[in-house]
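From the methods appendix. Each design record in this collection lists the tokenized structure first, followed by the designed amino acid sequence. Records were kept in a plain field format so they could be parsed without special tools. The example shown here is representative of the layout used throughout.

RECORD:
FOLD TOKENS (417 positions):
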């Protein structure tokens, strides 16, 4: 058989199976119990927005998500789902299907990037909500609550068990510890993972960006700014290293990035600092590029130290640069022909959503790296200013995002007669 014919057959098969899935979604949406879930969304989207505002006002800095988790647990309990908190801090509500050996996990992260003490009060102006974390990830959590409530109230019976969860440790130095624990605990039972992160309903994140994060600390002997002048300075050495790495040419393909995010050091204006540190985030679509970036970063820091020692004529002094890992996220990619992707696309087709494929660093990274089908989707509505105190969310059109998540979840779980 020639290649063109094989190509034609493959295209035919793909079109045929997509068509079949689209028909399935249409039938699913018309099922009276499923229609009840959809109806619930139209009736209760303001309630979902209220939940979002309340969650967003409960501080949830990295490693301190338990108060927000407790509120989430209460909303799951009120939806008639039995919820519990695992030893990692994840809030888990299971809705058993007829086949408990197969699980669809719908999860949103509880944590925010904002440290304790940040004013997280929410200002509401009509459909617009403003406050740190209002989109990332109060929007995702509210969507999981809305989906859980809509599905629970509709009394639809499913084949697979649906697990709704709020997990810890997605942001910053959490190193995905929440999703790691969930994947470990459900193991081979996980048929699909839907991570709901942020707002919007027009993207499908199918590729997890790999990242490596470090704290680099340079230490020296320090001293008095006047009497010890000429001794190597840990802050200057660190700054030299940062400037050196900043000329590293990051490729467009594979897309890669770096960020020096937090810098600390020194004790007083008239002391030569004995210690200085910086936190850096390296990302790439490819592990191989990430390895190159890490090695360039290590070289840059060593060269910065050498230059500082040479400049201060303190050749006998040492100024060690110590790298401490703050976490590594594995890369992963959902196959183009995955049934999960086909389901999402068919639901989008049914709802009239023109979605685009995206790459990002989310809770989906970990299951994808383990070969478990996973996507990250937005919770609906619109948002912006993520990871800044000027973050905002607009609830206009949030129903569409909620319907999308409910239909995808039910299609994957399989509705039983
Ligand atoms: Zn997020």
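DESIGN:
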């Amino acid at each position: 058989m020639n290649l063109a014919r094989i190509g034609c057959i493959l295209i035919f098969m793909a079109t045929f199976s997509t068509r079949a899935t689209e028909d399935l979604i249409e039938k699913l949406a018309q099922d009276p119990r499923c229609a009840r879930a959809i109806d619930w969304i139209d009736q209760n989207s303001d309630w979902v927005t209220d939940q979002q505002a309340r969650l967003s006002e409960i501080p949830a800095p990295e490693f301190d998500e338990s108060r927000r988790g407790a509120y989430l647990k209460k909303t799951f309990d009120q939806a008639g789902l039995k919820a519990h908190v695992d030893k990692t801090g994840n809030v888990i509500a299971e809705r058993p299907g007829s086949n408990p050996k197969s699980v669809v996990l719908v999860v949103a992260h509880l944590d925010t990037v904002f440290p304790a003490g940040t004013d997280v009060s929410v200002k509401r102006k009509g459909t617009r909500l403003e406050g740190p974390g209002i989109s990332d990830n109060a929007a995702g959590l509210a969507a999981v609550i809305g989906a859980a409530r809509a599905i629970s109230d509709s009394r639809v019976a499913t084949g697979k068990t649906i697990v709704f969860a709020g997990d810890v440790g997605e942001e910053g130095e959490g190193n995905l510890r929440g999703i790691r624990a969930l994947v470990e605990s459900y193991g081979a039972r996980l048929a699909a993972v839907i991570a709901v992160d942020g707002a919007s309903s027009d993207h499908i994140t199918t590729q997890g960006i790999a990242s490596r994060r470090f704290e680099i600390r340079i230490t020296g002997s320090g001293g008095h700014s006047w009497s010890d002048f000429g001794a190597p300075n840990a802050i200057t050495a660190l700054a030299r290293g940062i400037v050196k790495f900043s000329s590293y040419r990051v490729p467009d393909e594979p897309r890669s990035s770096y960020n020096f995010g937090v810098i600390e050091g020194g004790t007083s204006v008239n002391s030569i600092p004995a210690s200085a540190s910086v936190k850096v985030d390296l990302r790439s679509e490819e592990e191989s590029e990430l390895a190159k970036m890490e090695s360039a970063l290590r070289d840059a820091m060593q060269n910065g130290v050498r230059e500082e020692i040479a400049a201060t004529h303190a050749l006998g002094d040492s100024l060690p640069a110590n790298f401490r890992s703050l976490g590594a996220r594995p890369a992963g990619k959902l196959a183009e022909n995955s049934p999960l992707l086909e389901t999402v696309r068919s639901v989008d087709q049914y709802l009239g959503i023109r979605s685009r494929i995206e790459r990002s660093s989310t809770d989906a990274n970990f299951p994808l790296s383990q070969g478990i089908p996973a996507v990250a989707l937005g919770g609906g509505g619109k948002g912006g200013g993520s990871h800044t105190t000027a973050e905002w969310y607009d609830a206009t059109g949030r129903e569409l995002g909620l319907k999308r998540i409910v239909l995808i979840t039910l299609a994957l779980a399989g509705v039983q007669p």
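APPENDIX NOTE: The CA atoms of residues 8 and 14 lie 10 Å apart.
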